[in-house]
Write a structure and sequence with these properties.
By secondary structure, this protein is an alpha+beta fold. It has five helices and nine strands. The longest helix is centred in the C-terminal third of the chain and has 15 residues. It starts with a strand and ends in a 5-residue tail after the last helix.
Length: about 220
């Protein structure tokens, strides 16, 4: 499986985006081959806090997050449900992932969550990338797009998400560490400042193949 890293570049003001500068750096350093555009969509829900008790010795249950994530370019026939413990959870922090057929089954699940399970799960945000840019540069595939929060004219650009995939071969056996080093060297060459990096968990990838989905769920778990 190709090795992937994600980067999130936050906006510094409401009327600026890091995307033009990133594309300029790619064009300056390389000769990118343009690929078809891409998109994603995420709905984020947060578990409703349990009522406080009078016993000060009883700690509050950490909140959980539930994401409904669509990655139609990589998974055109599936949507994913990801449940993530909060950073304060004492159990394994790795997200639980299940897949649903795209289309009506996912819409029915969403309606069930909103109409019947609303007291348990509060909708927090809607994030989307529309018409993201994609390029191939040697052994790398780069996808970049503005991440917008909200719907319609009320959308707010939260930043730019970038997916860098290393497609090359390193020796007779896959070597994730070396592939990640190749990605880091590629990204360092661009000299992009202020990015937050996300990498996958090889153990979880071997268990269920959802490593890239978990990676996106981590990057999209924005606060506020």
């Amino acid at each position: 499986m190709p090795t992937v890293a994600l980067y999130f570049l936050p906006t510094t003001s409401a009327d600026t985006s890091p995307l033009p500068d990133l594309i300029n750096r790619l064009s300056t350093h390389y000769e990118p081959f343009v690929l078809p555009r891409w998109s994603l969509r995420q709905r984020l829900f947060r578990s409703t806090p349990a009522p406080r008790t009078s016993d000060d010795n009883v700690s509050a249950t950490p909140a959980r997050h539930l994401q409904i994530l669509s990655l139609p370019d990589d998974h055109p026939n599936e949507c994913f449900i990801i449940v993530t413990p909060s950073s304060g959870a004492t159990t394994d922090p790795a997200a639980t992932v299940i897949s649903l057929p795209a289309g009506q089954p996912t819409e029915e699940f969403t309606q069930l969550l909103v109409s019947r399970l609303g007291p348990l799960w509060q909708q927090r945000q809607l994030l989307a990338v529309a018409d993201g840019l994609a390029y191939e540069i040697g052994d790398f595939k780069i996808k970049a797009g503005e991440l917008k929060q909200g719907v319609g004219g009320a959308q707010l650009v939260r930043g730019v998400v970038v997916e860098v995939t290393y497609l090359g071969e390193i020796g007779p056996e896959p070597d994730r560490v070396q592939a990640e080093e190749m990605i880091m060297a590629f990204w360092d060459e661009l000299n992009v400042k202020g990015a937050k990096e996300f990498r996958g968990d090889e153990r979880k990838e071997e268990e269920d193949g959802f490593d890239n989905v978990r990676l996106w769920s981590m990057a999209l778990l924005l606060k506020g």
